[in-house]
Amino acid sequence: MARGEQDGNEQLRDRGVGLAIGASLAAATLAALLLLVWTGTERTAPSPAPFSHEAFPGANAALQTLGWRDRVADPPDAPVPSTPDDAALRLHQELVARGYQPMDDWSQPAPLPLTATLGASEEGCGVVVAAATLGGHLSDGSVEGERPMPSATPLAMSIGGCGDAAVRFFGTGEVLTRRYQMPGLTAAALRRLALPVEVALAHAEAEALLAKVGWQASPELVAESLAPATGPRAIAAPKAPSTGCVPWVAVGLGLGRASVTWNGIRVVEDLTEGRFLAGLVRCGGPEAASSVLEVVGDGEHEGRLWLRAYEARSGPRTPAPQATTLGAAVIRSPADATLPPPTRHD
């Protein structure tokens, strides 16, 4: 190779190296400028509004286990549409978790409309469940002689009663039926308290569910009536402690599509029409935040509420009661209600 040609190649190679180094420096400079701009932008961006901390940690999670019992048969967040067998199994498991005891096995299929008898001994109270077979559709049902209530799902429905109460299911196709009893709840206790059976059952269910996290129900029920109205209305628990927080369970008839918000965030939603079971928290003291219950009336019927406070005990969990204590409760007005010891989170 000639000397001149070799020198030329070396010059080209040196020039290429120089260009590469220059490009790398330019890229590094550009990256540094972009980082500076990005960093400056981050520093000058407005900070998010501070979120008010939950004054009662864990309360919303515990209360989310509530809701009307039938809604679990075909939950809206299920990954795939429920089948009749899925719905029947889910509802059975939910009833057992809520303290019910099965009285028998599933019946043979029978056409709708259908009348079934609870048949509980010693005037015991419980529910009759109807589960649709393939192609069946449940529309509504009630204790015989009362105004029918719409089914929360067309696949399964439960109706409460006591003793030999007869219940009616309506719809199309065929259903299977099964009976469940709530230990400790009797027709005599309901007459003494002047409680509708569905209200008593819902409160007994809540007691069984919340006992699993160590909460103990108050011996008092607070009863309220609401004038007929359409559109949503906001409801708070009837009394606040001077400090700390008290959880409440609310059961409503003539009201439905209940939702609970905490700090403006919806934490519970139950779209069951005409009745609901929901939990809320009432806190006291400076800057106390409480949850708000919002329900919708039908505009024709009076809405009725029954609320029960709970003591959220700390430490080891208490065993779930073998029978509900609701039968020994007393009815109070909101003004006369007494609160259990509040939960404090300092």
How would you summarize the topology of this molecule?
Elements: H1 3-44, H2 59-63, H3 84-97, E1 101-102, E2 110-111, E3 114-117, E4 124-132, E5 137-143, E6 149-150, E7 156-162, E8 166-172, E9 174-186, H4 187-193, H5 197-211, E10 215-217, E11 220-226, E12 230-235, E13 244-253, E14 255-262, E15 265-270, E16 275-284, E17 292-298, E18 303-312, E19 330-332
In short:
The chain has helices spanning 3-44, 59-63, 84-97, 187-193, 197-211, and strands spanning 101-102, 110-111, 114-117, 124-132, 137-143, 149-150, 156-162, 166-172, 174-186, 215-217, 220-226, 230-235, 244-253, 255-262, 265-270, 275-284, 292-298, 303-312, 330-332.
Structural commentary:
With 346 residues, the chain is an alpha+beta fold. The protein has one domain. Helices cover 24% and strands 36% of the residues. It contains 5 helices and 19 strands. The longest helix is centred in the first third of the chain and has 42 residues, at 3-44. The chain starts with a helix and ends in a 14-residue tail after the last strand. Mean pLDDT is 79; it is low at 1-53.
Main beta-sheet strand count, sense and barrel state: 6 strands, mixed
The class by helix and strand makeup works out as alpha+beta
Which percent band covers the strand fraction? 35-45%
Distance between the termini: 87 Å
Weakly predicted, low-confidence segments: 1-53
Number of domains: 1
The helix content, as a percent range, equals 10-25%
Tags for this model:
346 residues, alpha+beta, six-stranded mixed β-sheet, five-stranded antiparallel β-sheet, 5 helices, 36% strand, disordered N terminus
